């Protein structure tokens, strides 16, 4: 297909589909009903991640598409063999008034993950940094989840996963993924990505990865939580009180206001230990490092919102787990003025400890 302009500095080179290879065994389940654990994430925004890989030796786009891109497709197909539901579709029928739906992930022969290949003239080093970056610069790097059978926010079927590979000539690449949050939690998502990375790097020499478990019978629901969650979702949808649902924070479909920026803040192991001692001296309640980091971040958001906030403005918080030195990274999305107040709170917090 001819190149398409996706953004003033981003152009789509190719759009294709990658199916699990080899296909899943005949005995594998083809329909996976959502459990109450999954339904808790039904109305949340999709999980969207950007992975930047700097490589100054990547000279030409043609070199990448001829050599590296086929390897990425092959390793993705091999990883999807183990995680084949990600190539399926999520049935979404919440629009039927008075009917409790039975949402499930369904995989059929020939199902695939849409893959977009693009080239960007933007600055990879700037986009991959921890400093405050405008979200509109990140928007073109994320793929959208396709909807089927009529479109709309409550269409009957929807893709589960979409992948985009963006080449930055003479700089590196970015792999962007968009995943429906009801289909996989953070641990499952990381499991898939680490499997894909291992296969891409080591090929057939990759050690056997722990396989995902698809047996829904292991999830007991004696209290009827699944039906209760489904009724709540139907009621919210009927009342139009879902705050935009999937689209609300989907950066691949909707840009946030132009002044919204995203930044990464690092809570080092030393800082977390100091913060833990301070909290215990005030409350006598020990807290985990995750609770300390997220609690401090939320306190910073409240502080920033009190100083500069608009009650109607959106904000976001996501922790990305421990870094290599035992600390924790937290990503924050706020309007620029609030981000400055958050940064001042963050710096002052540890100056006082």
From TrEMBL:
InterPro entries named in the record: CAT-like_dom_sf, Plant_metabolite_acyltrans
Superkingdom of source: Eukaryota
Pfam families, alphabetized: Transferase
Keyword match Acyltransferase: yes
GO molecular function: acyltransferase activity, transferring groups other than amino-acyl groups
Keywords: Acyltransferase, Transferase
Keyword Transferase recorded: yes
Name this protein carries in UniProt: Uncharacterized protein
Source organism of the structure: Urochloa decumbens
Highest classification ranks of the organism: Eukaryota, Viridiplantae, Streptophyta, Embryophyta, Tracheophyta
């Amino acid at each position: 297909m001819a190149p398409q302009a996706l953004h003033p500095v981003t152009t789509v080179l190719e759009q294709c589909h990658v199916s699990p290879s080899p296909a899943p065994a005949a005995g594998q389940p083809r329909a996976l009903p959502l459990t109450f654990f999954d339904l808790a994430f039904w109305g949340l925004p999709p999980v969207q991640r950007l992975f930047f890989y700097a490589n100054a030796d990547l000279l030409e786009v043609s070199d990448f598409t001829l050599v590296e891109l086929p390897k990425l497709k092959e390793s993705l197909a091999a990883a999807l063999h183990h995680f084949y539901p990600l190539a399926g579709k999520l049935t979404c029928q919440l629009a039927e008034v008075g009917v409790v739906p039975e949402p499930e992930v369904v995989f059929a022969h020939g199902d695939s993950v849409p893959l977009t290949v693009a080239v960007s003239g933007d600055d990879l080093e700037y986009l991959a940094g921890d400093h405050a970056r405008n979200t509109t610069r990140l928007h073109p790097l994320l793929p959208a989840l396709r909807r089927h059978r009529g479109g709309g926010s409550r269409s009957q079927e929807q893709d589960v996963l979409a992948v985009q590979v963006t080449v930055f000539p003479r700089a590196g690449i970015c792999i962007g993924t968009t995943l429906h949050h009801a289909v996989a939690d953070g641990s499952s998502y990381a499991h898939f990505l680490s499997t894909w990375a291992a296969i891409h790097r080591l090929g057939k020499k990759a050690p056997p990865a722990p396989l995902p478990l698809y047996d829904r019978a292991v999830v007991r629901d004696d209290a009827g939580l699944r039906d209760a969650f489904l009724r709540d979702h139907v009621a919210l949808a009927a009342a139009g009180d879902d705050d935009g649902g999937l689209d609300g924070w989907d950066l691949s479909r909707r840009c946030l206001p132009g002044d919204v920026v995203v930044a990464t803040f690092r809570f080092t192991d030393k800082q977390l230990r100091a913060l833990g001692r301070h909290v215990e001296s005030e409350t006598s309640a020990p807290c985990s490092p995750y609770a300390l980091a997220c609690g401090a971040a939320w306190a910073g958001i409240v502080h920033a919102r009190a100083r500069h906030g608009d009650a109607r403005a959106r904000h976001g918080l996501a922790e990305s787990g421990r870094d290599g030195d035992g600390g924790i990274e937290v990503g924050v999305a706020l309007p620029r003025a609030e981000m400055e107040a958050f940064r001042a709170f963050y710096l002052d917090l540890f100056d006082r400890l």
